[in-house]
Design brief:
This protein is an alpha/beta fold. The protein has a 6-stranded antiparallel barrel with strand order 10-11-16-15-14-17. The longest helix is centred in the middle third of the chain and has 23 residues.
Length: 410
């Protein structure tokens, strides 16, 4: 089965042979793979992406008669494909206007063939990402850290919105699993100091224990109350999280559920989890920001160095150097509760911005991985200073704003 299905709306007043000729020429120009469904809507909603090809004018009434059936089959937006021939664009505009009046989502896909093909492929990528999220299980190991007073999750709403199940796992279970995991003194990591060399076996033990929990609870990712490890095993989860993220297991810090949810959405779209970091400084006038944290996915960096964990000075932290260039900053709220400035109809709250990673830094007074990012729109610094979604944000290489906006509006 192809991932795209094309259904049709055609007025009986138009000559079928002429319409069929236009249809063949138009769809051939798009160079896309699709399943042709015609006017048989039996399978509507079964493909990742359904397109309704409005072939002629005079089809508004036909769509209206179909609407209840289509809504019963799928709650996805209505994507109206049109070549513009035979008043099809006008009919599509009337249909979309009606959908908007009913509070339903939709879009007219119209333009040059190259644009239409590109837009369809973008919509398909988002549809596949949303499909990938369905049934995802994410662990919350040890609950959010005490200082994350705004980073909570409405589990029921998260499941309804994204199809993601949040699973609570006691910190003691991880500690017991660490104790049950043999320590291997051999390591391929090059330690810059004797203290880090001595810390590496336990850091790797934590990695293996976390992987055991992932398998035991059938998780695709988790967030860890990592600071608890400082007092219990005198080490950190920084190296473990860096490795697991590189292996495709979303692994977040400090029990931050909104950050983990953001990483999971980013991973579904881009294939990388993203760098979970908090802003260390902001210049509202220039839009220059510094983000920092003590771990970063190893598949996001050109190279990295081992250091201690910044706040405690113990264990193993990661100083990663990512390739300079375009980046996207993203965060979604997981409690679905608006702040005072956000109307309830705009939920869930999220933030997305694009910018440039201009340099990596290694200052001694910050978490080990440090990135200086120039926002494309400096005015977006007002979000961080006036209505932020917690402190942690996710940074991912490349321009992904369009995809992330579609994730929230499709």
């Amino acid at each position: 089965m192809n991932k795209i299905a094309i259904y049709t709306l055609t007025s009986e007043l138009h000559n079928e042979e002429a319409v069929a000729t236009v249809t063949s020429e138009f769809l051939s120009s798009l160079s896309i793979d699709y399943d042709w469904q015609g006017n048989d809507y039996t399978n509507y909603g079964s493909h990742p992406l359904d397109l309704i090809y409005v072939r002629t004018g005079g089809t508004e009434g036909i769509f209206l008669r179909l609407l209840a059936e289509l809504q019963a089959k799928s709650n996805k937006p209505f994507y109206l494909l049109t070549s513009g021939k035979s008043n099809s664009l006008a009919a599509s505009m009337e249909i979309l206007s009606y959908l908007r009046q009913q509070g339903l989502k939709g879009e007219i896909i119209h333009g040059e063939s190259t644009y239409i093909a590109q837009r369809i492929n973008t919509l398909l990528k988002v549809a596949e990402a949303r499909q990938q999220l369905q049934g995802t299980r994410l662990g919350i190991i040890g609950q959010p850290s005490d200082w994350l007073i705004s980073s909570h999750a409405d589990k029921k709403k998260v499941r309804q919105q994204w199809g993601i199940e949040l699973v609570d796992i006691p910190m003691q279970e991880l500690l017991d699993t660490i104790n049950d995991t043999p320590i291997d003194e051999t390591t391929t990591e090059k330690a810059p100091t004797e203290a880090i060399r001595r810390s590496l076996p336990v850091a790797n033990q934590i990695y293996k224990a976390l992987k055991t929990l992932v398998q035991r609870h059938q998780l695709q990712g988790f967030t860890l109350r990592c600071f608890d490890l400082l007092g219990t095993v005198h080490n950190t989860g920084c190296l473990a999280l860096a490795r697991l993220n590189a292996e495709g297991i979303m692994a977040g810090c400090e029990g931050d559920v909104p950050a983990l949810l953001s990483m999971t959405i980013v991973h579904a779209l881009t294939g990388v989890s993203g760098f979970q970091a908090n802003p260390a400084s902001i210049d509202p006038q220039t839009g220059t920001m510094v983000f920092a944290h003590c771990t970063i996915p190893l598949n996001m960096v050109e190279h990295y160095e081992l250091d201690t964990h910044f706040e405690s000075g113990i264990g193993v932290g990661i100083r990663g150097y990512m390739h300079e260039g375009p980046v996207t900053i993203y965060k979604v709220a997981a409690d679905l509760t608006p702040d005072a400035d956000t109307p309830s109809h705009q939920l869930p709250r999220y933030f997305v911005a694009e910018g440039q990673l201009v340099r990596n830094e290694s200052k001694p007074d910050l978490c080990r991985t440090q990135q200086v990012i120039q926002l494309a729109d400096p005015t977006q610094t007002s979000y961080f200073l006036n209505h932020p979604i917690g402190n942690h944000h996710i940074i991912v290489p490349g321009h992904h704003k369009e995809l992330l906006l579609l994730m929230h509006n499709s």
